[in-house]
Amino acid sequence: ENPHPYPTEIRSIIDRCVADVRSGSESMTVDVDAPAEVTAVTLPALETAITEILDNAVEYGPEEPNVRITVETTSDEVTIRVADDGPGIPEQERGILTDDHDIDALYHGSGIGLWFVYWVVHLSGGHLSFEEREPHGSVVVITLDRI
Hints:
Structural class: alpha+beta
Order of helices and strands: EHEEHEEHHEE
Shape: globular
Distance between the termini: 24 Å
Number of helices: 4
Radius of gyration: 15 Å
Largest sheet: 5 strands, mixed
Strand content: 25-35%
Oligomer: single chain
């Protein structure tokens, strides 16, 4: 099936993802800083991709994970940042998903979760990147075209 991205209201997706993950992990704290209404071009699977990122924060993070989701906009783009306080995403994983490393016997990734996120963002015409969070943790950055 050829997926086709379409205009999607981002805040409602984030709110549903947060509610879903909180129902499975009451010890998780999630702060959201996002406009009430902002629309970006994306596949419907963006909701599953953001849930995957939040699930990773629970699975690999501390006993009481803290996550901050921010949404920033320009006239052309919507940038979603999901910052956690876990051990961080290994450089090897980030490198594969950002084309800094080729896939081979030594560099191949450890699971499909971040690959799923990568393909949802890529097929939405967006960009996926990673930042380190100080003093520890990761920031997954999704940039999409704004409507």
